[in-house]
Backbone:
């Protein structure tokens, strides 16, 4: 069996507070293989025509679309949750991406949450894209823990066909990420590469700067011939040199995946 060569892409959220255009520019200039569009980062991110133009002008592919599921993007593309996912799939197909990343619903989105697992399955039947549901984490404050997501922050017990594993979220959840990768098996479709220190805060550190053992996790992906996308999704808001951090993350990923630039 030939060895799959994973592509290392950049989430446009990694340049925040820079916008979507800055994400494409950085990804192309620094040598990333592709881009994940975080819908809702700015107005450009929700405009398919603009996003396609950025992809063409910078000569870089869009590999995935992150649906507007964050608290701060609740009104992007309207307020109807399923409508957002339809729009995300339509954007993905139009820009040539094969994956839509989606968070589980918040608990207060009761109707959406009640039929979420079955609804994701129907969307995957309807569209030729993977809806990769992302692992989240319990919200904590001191000794208190709040389950903010339904049917749950952990995708493993649910019958999602495709799952995104975010290493920073796994750190915040304080779980064994290597075991999660192994337990998901072929359902593992997408990776958000970042690091964490086990803090209650979702940190999205540069890989190698936390305690997740990102080198071991990436090596396991390579060992298992992982066929999905590896997307660097890091926090560079206070970085003295954003380019240096993004290059460090790219080099780290390629080194431990055992791949060269495409």
Residues:
């Amino acid at each position: 069996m030939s060895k799959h060569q994973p592509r290392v892409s950049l989430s446009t959220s990694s340049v925040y507070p820079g916008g979507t255009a800055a994400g494409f520019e950085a990804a192309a200039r620094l040598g990333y293989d592709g881009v994940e569009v975080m819908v809702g980062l700015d107005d450009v991110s929700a405009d398919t025509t603009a996003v396609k133009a950025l992809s063409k002008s910078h000569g870089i592919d869009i590999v995935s679309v992150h649906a507007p599921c964050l608290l701060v993007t609740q009104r992007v593309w309207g307020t109807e949750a399923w409508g957002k996912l339809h729009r995300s799939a339509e954007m993905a197909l139009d820009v040539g991406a094969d994956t839509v990343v989606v968070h589980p619903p918040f608990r207060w989105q009761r109707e959406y949450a009640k039929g979420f697992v079955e609804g994701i399955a129907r969307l995957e039947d309807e569209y030729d894209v993977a809806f990769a549901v992302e692992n989240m984490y319990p919200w904590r404050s001191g000794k208190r823990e709040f389950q903010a997501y339904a049917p749950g922050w952990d995708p493993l017990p649910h019958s999602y066909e495709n799952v995104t594993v975010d290493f920073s979220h796994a750190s915040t959840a304080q779980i064994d990420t290597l075991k999660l990768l192994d337990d998901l098996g072929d359902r593992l479709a997408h990776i958000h590469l970042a690091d964490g220190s086990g803090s209650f805060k979702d940190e999205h550190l540069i890989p190698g700067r936390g305690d997740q053992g990102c080198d071991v996790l990436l090596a396991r992906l390579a060992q298992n011939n992982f066929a999905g996308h590896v997307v660097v999704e890091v926090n560079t808001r206070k970085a003295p040199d954003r380019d240096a951090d993004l290059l460090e993350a790219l080099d780290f990923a390629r080194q431990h995946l055992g791949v060269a630039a495409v």
Observations:
- The two ends are 20 Å apart (CA to CA).
